[in-house]
């Protein structure tokens, strides 16, 4: 019945991370499989995949919200990864997260940058010039 | 001594709103003029004007942080205005703020959209097709 | 296509406040009518109207979230009103909001109680014994 | 002097978890034993044990506050456990926490559901039908 | 029964603002008089009046919490007033609130400084050198 | 060019923890060395080292913000350590963090006290009388 939404959501999720939908569904299976459906169908299928805003801009908004709130660390990690996947550069991610210091304080920015550091290490990318100072 | 930072900050602020620096300095004059200096010199002159991220993307991050936190209403209003000034369309702003519902809840998104409605009315713009809303 | 969800959402909203859906749609009409659809169809039609939890308990959860976050004042007002509509007594609402002090601090509880005072006055109800307060 | 409050608080805590008071007092003993007293005497003895709201409803409010705030993970874990103890079913807890997505965003709800998953596993209960779909 | 706590709380409140207890009790009378009792007896009588920390330091902690959270505007206003009453200078208050920018962002600090500006105006004090502001 | 700010910031940081600047620079080196500069030069060199407020009072404000927000756990740990370094006693720190319960809820206070317990253990200090009751 809701397969169109689900397909569109799954497709959007795959652009962020091919394993995202599977991990979400697996994590929620023993407790709230309907919640995973909602994430896929509504979160990604109805909202994030709307045509009025490009995926890069959506990721910048998402990074801002998650880093500003501070507590959703796993989601921030996932969306830093997703930001890389939609073509945002490591340097742009770092700039976005540094900027969090102005609007939500240095601790929120610092902790977000630490999360980014872990994601970058896992993906083997760096925001620094290749000659790699420091 | 810090005139280069101040000039760069003032120039960046002017791209968001020609009256922004003046309003900030006037508001802080009777209580904390140094704080206005910090906003101009550090906030805008050192951080926001860094070349590594374009102004549109910075505004998307800022909208995300402010709408997600929920309480900084005046700053959200100012940065929705600034988003329009750097070329983000009303429709893109609406999409960005709708998306806040996913990551910070519908109330945060609803209240942010209401602020946008006021800014759009003041500037005489609309996110809806010209043939009319709904 | 989504009429079943929309109908179920509208019906649930009506149990909280007969004017809620209309006010939501009117407020969002000039800026984000799709967002109103999402609230009705997803928020109320898919989530809040799920059969696994009774409406009173859902309102208690909602009061806790909104009062704890502190910034969504209009939504808290609406859901205090909705709590009365689904049969929660004024006294129970007061008890729930007082309890917010333990988990989110006295200021959050105080401000929520002030909102409740306004709602109770509008509806002509009181949490105190009829012989009078204090 | 405050033994009546302390007794009432201890009794209420025991209904949530027989080991709760002991764990609290042990944890605070080397640093702030008075703080443990306040939790028992004021938090539970004066506030939570008030007769005007039943323990189930109090737990729903508490789950809403803690899941909405996002950062008090240990307390959320404790109160999910307490919710089970006062007779809220695993399925009702899941419904309550899913609903957090509407008012505080999907990340807050997701993280709360993950905490519930751990509590359910520890207590050997499940919110799903026993045939265990998904 | 609890008169010692109540007296101690009332005395502490009076050092912050002679009208504080009365305003609190009056505001809560029609809805939650017990909550006012708790504020006086527990909040001020048991916690704030503890001898282990001087009133000035307690006000600095309180200003940090309230300004950092951002949403409790009325309470921040009250405690800026209370800070003046216990001998913190307008300039020290401004410094404390400016510092909020580092740990919770410039918007939180800006909004707190605006509240301070109103309190200072009401009390006829200024944080600036008497020869005048910048 | 900014060496005066940097020197002043580094000197202030050293009063909190001789290893603080080095740890910050090392942590940010692979991802955002400019961000470490900003922390040293602006955060500590321009803001925290301002003469208008003594270091103890600044630490009380900082403890309030960080404990109230709840999510910046590492920063809270660092600033509890810094509080000890500028001469705030373990007992005063405990009092300040207990007080967080009034303004931001018991969970925020409890978690902050747990962080303090770890810092005190690492530094071999205690807030309790040496005979160690409780």
TrEMBL record, chains A, B, C, D, E, F:
Pfam families: CMD. Residues 33-117 form the Carboxymuconolactone decarboxylase-like domain. InterPro entries: 4CMD/NDH-1_regulator, AhpD-like, CMD-like. This is Carboxymuconolactone decarboxylase family protein. It comes from Brevundimonas staleyi.
């Amino acid at each position: 019945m809701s397969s169109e939404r689900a397909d569109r959501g799954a497709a959007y999720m795959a652009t962020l991370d091919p394993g995202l939908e599977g991990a979400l569904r697996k994590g929620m299976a023993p407790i709230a499989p309907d919640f995973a459906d909602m994430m896929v169908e509504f979160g990604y299928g109805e909202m994030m995949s709307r045509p009025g805003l490009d995926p890069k801009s959506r990721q910048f908004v998402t990074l801002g919200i998650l880093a500003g709130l501070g507590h959703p660390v796993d989601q921030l990690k996932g969306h830093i990864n997703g930001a890389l996947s939609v073509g945002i550069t490591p340097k742009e991610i770092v700039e976005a997260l540094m900027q969090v210091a102005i609007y939500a304080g240095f601790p929120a920015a610092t902790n977000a940058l630490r999360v980014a550091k872990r994601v970058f290490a896992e993906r083997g990318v760096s925001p620094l010039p290749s000659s790699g100072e420091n």
